[in-house]
Amino acid sequence: MNKTIGILAHVDAGKTTFSEQLLYHTKSIKQRGRVDHRDTFLDSHEIERQRGITVFADQASFSYNHSIYYLIDTPGHVDFSPEMERAIQVMDYAIIIISAVEGIEGHTETVWMLLRKYQVPTFFFINKTDRVGADVEAVLEDIRLNLTRDIYEITDSFRDGEMDEGLIEFVAERNEHLLEQYMESGYQKDLWLKSLQEMINHNQAFLCSSGSALQDIGIEHFLAAFDQLTVTSFESDEAFTGRVYKIRHDENGACISFIKALSGSIKVRDEISYWNGQNEISEKITQIRVYSGSKYKTVNHVKAGELFAVSGLTMITVGSYIGEMNESVGFEMVPALKSKVLFEPSVNIKEALRFFKILDAEDPSLNVIWEENMQQIHIHVMGTIQLEVLEQVVLERFQLKISFAEPEILYRETIHSTVVGYGHFEPLGHYAEVHLKLEPGERNSGITFLNACHTDDLTVGNQNLIEQHLFEREHNGLLTGSPLTDVKITLLTGRAHNKHTSGGDFREAAYRALRQGLEKASNILLEPIYEFKIKVDIEQMGRVLADIQTAFGKFNPPITEGKKAILSGTVPVSTFMGYSTQLAAFTQGKGSISLVFAGYDRCHNEKEVIETVSYDKNADPAYTSSSIFCSKGQGYSVPWDVAEKEMHCL
């Protein structure tokens, strides 16, 4: 039986130490490393050892009883949460590590939210019970109040497949049929174990154990219980499907794609198909690797349920499905900041761009952008720690010394009114016309497309071409040049010429129609917002509420738990991204805060931002709202505000 398990936690909860113990007890490593000694098996990168934190989602494998386990140790720092989220998508089970002293911390709630989104069955291990101030019961109550009430502590309740009365009651409360059977014929070990396994797999029960990873207390019991309580099933006889959860490049620059096999099997030299976002690609597998830490062995064949890496896929992207599935992938952990890459004058900037494109393939959340007119590289980031690590990564991997400008907020733009945009492109020898209706979309819906064009006006092929062009890149808004979002675009009609329409004519016409529509619309600026959850002593609640209001945030009615107050709501990233430091200062580190990116909303200081950015909509080299018409063999430009009168389809 193959099981992929993920170890997740808020930073410093003991996640990597816990992973070391699992590997040691299953004889996968000969000695246990320590984070403070910089010799752990999974934190094999020099950057991780220097900083004492996990940055990359690395994996190992071990055997236990009759199962093969693939263990993924994920980053615990919020700046590297996109890496964590990509790994979560291939986990069969997750284990959340929580400190018995600190309890649930900000990032713990983010981890829980992601695991619920992807419906990953989850266990808890309350760690550091050997430390002064450890309180397992308090942490369990914290979990019940803030995460789930369907939790049960099994340290003394489950052993060798047997359940005590308390655990039997917990299971029976959640399964009426089992309760009736129990009343009639009593407890039957195999039946109850199978029922509990099913409840875990359906996210109806979350089991917890406690101990100390550093002192090796409770680890063996947890592993034995976990092994008995988890079951997986994969279809090896079906067609091969898989999911790419990580991409790396080897020392020769070759792309190594890390895959979870969901069904079927593949072998070296097999040809596989995948969707790269625009086209279906078929390529041949040239090598299959099974990684454990930084080392790997090559194999000829893998099957459903296994984690492995392949070479030979040159156009694959992180999150891609392989095989018959071509579902799109959306991520919750999205950067709200951007930064400019700074170079020494002697650096070949195009060579530097090539390096950053490699990093972009490995971490799509970077969204590396090349500003041709300014000869600048911009990236999207989660925070300043990520920038520090990237600086070191670029130096070590590419021998390139760089730095970054102060991070800035990533704004978006949308419209507040419905308009029709017209675009015409007819220089000599070319011809295309496109009419688009632009409507405000739901907040955080992105760009959506509808087709209302009749085939008498444009062929299906040309209609599809227009849609493809509209989605092949982000489009700039008029206020700050920030990406356009939350707009519903409907293709109304268009026109082509049998002889003269070619190449990118519809791209030119569609972009001009979009831009002309924006010129006529009421445009608004959007800013990224956090969904926050803050827990402080009741006497500190007034201070926090005042801070939230000062930061232009919105809050829900406070909830009190004993002497604690829980505050939740939304707040702009720009006014709140440094608040965790302030909170720690005036609560002496006792207050907790969770900040999760929650999309975009109307900018609270729109006028100020627009003035600061100083974007000139008429000088954007990528866009124009004017149309090109032809008369007497000469092309001429028509401004957006009079172009509508000259359109051919009206």
Report the span from N to C terminus. 65 Å
Provide the spatial order of strands within the biggest beta sheet: 2-3-1-4-5-9-6
- Main beta sheet: strand number and arrangement? 7 strands, mixed
Shape assignment: globular
Mean pLDDT: 90
Binned strand content: 25-35%
Fraction of residues in helix: 25-40%
Q: Given the structure, what is the number of helices?
A: 18
List the uncertain runs: none
Q: Tell me the radius of gyration.
A: 28 Å
Structural class: alpha+beta
How many beta strands in the DSSP annotation? Answer: 36
Write a structural description:
- Strand 7 and strand 8 form a beta hairpin.
- It is built from 18 helices and 36 strands.
- Helix 12 crosses helix 13.
- 28% of the residues lie in helices and 32% in strands.
- With 650 residues, it is an alpha+beta fold.
- The strands form 9 sheets. The protein has a 7-stranded mixed sheet with strand order 2-3-1-4-5-9-6, with helices on both faces. Strands 16-15-18-11-10-19 form a 6-stranded antiparallel sheet.
Q: How would you summarize what this structure contains?
A:
The chain is of the alpha+beta class and 650 residues long. 28% of the residues lie in helices and 32% in strands.
